[in-house]
Design goal:
With about 325 residues, this protein is α/β, with parallel strands linked by helices. The chain has 2 domains: about 35-150 and about 270-295, Rossmann fold, CATH 3.40.50.2300; about 150-270 and about 300-330, Rossmann fold, CATH 3.40.50. It has 13 helices and 12 strands. The protein has helices at about 5-35, 50-60, 80-95, 105-110, 150-165, 185-195, 210-220, 230-235, 235-245, 255-260, 270-285, 310-315, 320-325; strands spanning about 40-45, 70-75, 100, 120-125, 145-150, 170-175, 200-205, 225, 250-255, 265-270, 300-305, 330. The strands form 2 sheets. The protein has a 7-stranded mixed beta sheet with strand order 7-6-8-9-10-11-12, sandwiched between helices. Strands 2-1-3-4-5 form a 5-stranded parallel beta sheet, with helices on both faces. It is elongated and about 60 Å long.
């Protein structure tokens, strides 16, 4: 018995040391984990895997590894306003360090639940000053910054393009997502009036309404369709392109990926560039800069893409000026 005491004492000592070492490591790990910044994406659309990859890749380029030194959270609402509100409330409750908000609905959802967490927006539909989210573009003054379009300028440019493309154009249909900010619609109507055009509004709440929307465009004698930026509509881009070809209607969208699935042409900001720049803003915020001092910016890069296969299918010929201006031509 006595001979075994030294061994038992040594064993107890070893167990104590191991336990203390394990406990110390756990405390250290917990402290380290709590210091890891948390960044969340909120978007009203169904998930877009391309943007998930792009955001993660951009974070890595800046030295962040999601899951190691960054807690990155995504919340895609799948087109549900109720889910969007729940997502926004959850992120505010978790007190994440920054929110990346996509589209006007995403920004509204985030702003509606927090006025303190920094929000970096990529929003192609809203006027941030008119909506009260920022005091000015140069000095936002609140918790919202990011990248917003100059809506009247883009609307005018898109209408001028379709007027050049379609001889004797008088009526244009505008396909839009009912969930998004009405500002682009107002800008489009104003630009159309200045060009002597009338507008047929095609309001869509869900993909199941798209066929009816195109029937309305035909019934009201629209000569072309412009699709407003919308993640929900972009998920259904192939169906929309097929409907346009079926009704032999020239169809234009904002983003290059839409031309790849059959839109006649696209003109709009390079969203991949905006997403990358938004992550740079998040990085600056995580390093101590305040969103109220980060100026709201306009897109710097626009893409003009033509689809000659679709043009042939609906009997349209692109003017030579289109080819001279195009960034890419799909044949």
């Amino acid at each position: 018995m006595r001979g075994g005491e030294p061994k038992r004492a040594a064993t107890r000592a070893l167990c104590f040391v191991l336990a203390a070492t394990w406990a110390g490591a756990s405390i250290s790990d917990t402290r380290e984990a709590s210091a890891i910044p948390a960044v969340a994406l909120i978007n009203p659309a169904p998930q877009v895997p391309h943007f998930t990859r792009l955001i993660r890749d951009t974070f890595r380029e800046l030295g962040y590894e999601p899951g190691r030194n960054l807690n990155y959270i995504e919340r895609w609402a799948g087109g549900s306003e109720d889910q969007l509100r729940r997502d926004a409330a959850e992120l505010a409750e978790r007190k994440v360090d920054a929110i990346i908000a996509g589209t006007s609905a995403g920004v509204r959802g985030a702003v509606g639940t927090t006025r303190t967490i920094p929000i970096v927006a990529v929003d192609m539909e809203s006027d941030p000053v008119a909506n009260g989210w920022a005091a000015s573009l140069a000095k936002p003054g609140g918790n919202v910054t990011g990248f917003f379009l100059d809506l009247p300028e883009l609307s005018g440019k898109r209408l001028e393009q379709v007027k050049e493309l379609v001889p004797r154009l008088s009526r244009v249909a505008v396909l839009y997502d009912a969930m998004l900010d009405p500002a682009p619609i107002r800008a489009m109507e104003t630009s159309a009036r200045s060009l002597g055009l009338s507008v047929v509004m095609l309001r869509v709440q869900r993909p199941g309404e798209l066929s009816r929307a195109f029937d309305t465009a035909v019934r009201k004698r629209a000569q072309a369709v412009l699709m407003m930026p919308s993640p929900m509509l972009e998920v259904s881009a192939s169906q929309i392109a097929d409907l346009a070809v079926k009704h032999r209607l020239p169809l234009a969208g904002a983003f290059p990926s839409l031309a790849d699935v059959g839109f006649l042409y696209t003109y709009g900001p390079n969203v991949d560039d905006l997403v990358r720049r938004s992550i740079v803003y998040v990085d600056r915020i995580l390093k101590g800069e305040r969103p109220d001092n980060l100026p709201i910016q306009r897109p710097a890069k626009f893409d003009f893409v033509l689809n000659t296969k679709t043009a042939a299918a609906i009997g349209i010929k692109f003017p030579q000026t289109f080819f001279l201006q195009a960034d890419r031509v799909i044949k």
